[in-house]
Amino acid sequence: MSVNRVNDDQEDRQNQHIADILGLCKDEVDEWKIGQSPDESEGVIYGEIITFSQRTPRLILDKAGVVKGQFHIIMCELFSDRG
Question: Which residues are bridge partners to 27 per DSSP?
Answer without folding.
Answer: none
